[in-house]
# Entry
Amino acid sequence: MAITRAGRICSFCGTPGGPGTDLPLIGGLGAQVCGVCIDDFHATIHDEEALAAARGSFPWDTMTDAEVLATLPQILASAEQNVGFAQEWVDLLRERNVSWAEIGRTLGVSRQAVWERFARKSGDKGASA
# Structure
């Protein structure tokens, strides 16, 4: 199974990127970041005044209600992307013949609980321990 960046969004700005777009994405373990966000973070980290301002408050502290509302769909899209990543990682583990029991132990749940959460979506109906 190949885990790709196709159809992904930047976990920070929500912009679609990856193959077939002009916006490369890098990252892993669920988070993807675009070059624009990397450049913005780099500029902030290397500007003492901007860094001090960033450390002083959270972005939502200065956002209007309309801006917070506009950001909500991006947050949900990023969360849905992470759920998809979790599914892909479980599928990868199952392809490597890692048992449902081991995946469940890693997640702190029972074999049955992890199977119910992930097997039906992946098509893996194997109940192997």
About this structure: The mean pLDDT is 86. The helical segments are 35-45, 48-56, 65-95, 100-107, 111-122.
